[in-house]
Amino acid sequence: MPRLNSSNEKGKSQKSLLMAYYWAMEDHFGFQDWWPGETPDEVAIGAILTQNTNWSNVEKAIRNLKAAGALSISKLASLARKELASLIRSSGYFNIKERRLRAFSEEIMQNFNGSILKMSSIPFNALRERLLAVNGIGEETADSIILYAIEAPTFVVDTYTRRVASRHGLVPKNATYAEIKYFYESNLEKDVDLFKEYHALLVAVGKHFCKPKPQCEHCPLSCYL
């Protein structure tokens, strides 16, 4: 078990603090309604494509896939490798991502009859391990697919989440992915919509204020430093 929040009193105060952060971020940025995507397939594909690139590059690849009628797991599995790589070129590392998308689509086609939502029929821990076993699917991508495509409550830890949490002293600077995930999950109500919105708001803070060189002056969380 991760080492964070060992006392009940501390745990109670951390829960209140995290919700104070939430309302401060929402008051500043408004409701985010993230992740953009019309179907579970589109959300999962986007989660894989966004690895090591920014979302604007992913959007171009998504548009290309949609225009080609290939924005689904079943269509991806049937595309020739060069065709799929060409369609997602804008997302960067397109040959690597082509292999990852193909491995993921084959997993869904072979074991879940082509339906991402059918993955929810297996226990959560087994589901997460199943995703992590797919070539190129790491913890952040797996949790993004589970939370945003399958809509099961798991907290996503990305660069922004880690940066905000460590700078505010919520977790140690060297905290692992699992420890940061545990911190948020143990101090927030286990709710899909809350986890989605909280993650999206942390991303907004990270993009606008909590950058590699912090710009704290107008940050909605500056009063908590």
Please explain how this structure is put together:
- The structure is a single chain.
- 60% of the residues lie in helices and 0% in strands.
- It has 225 residues and is mostly helical.
- It has 2 domains: 8-30 and 155-224, Endonuclease Iii, domain 2 (Orthogonal Bundle); 40-150, Orthogonal Bundle (Endonuclease III, domain 1), CATH 1.10.340.
- The protein starts with 7 loop residues before the first helix and ends in a 17-residue tail after the last helix.
List the helices and strands and how they pair.
Elements: H1 8-29, H2 40-49, H3 55-67, H4 73-78, H5 81-87, H6 94-111, H7 124-132, H8 139-150, H9 159-167, H10 177-187, H11 192-208
Helix pairs in contact: 1-11, 2-3, 2-8, 5-6, 7-8, 9-11
CATH superfamily of the largest domain: Hypothetical protein, domain 2
Element order: H for helix, E for strand: HHHHHHHHHHH
Specify the structural class. mainly alpha
CATH architecture designation of the largest domain: Orthogonal Bundle
Major sheet characteristics? none
Secondary structure tally: strands: 0
Q: Helical segment tally?
A: 11
Strand content: under 5%
Shape, per Cα inertia axes: globular
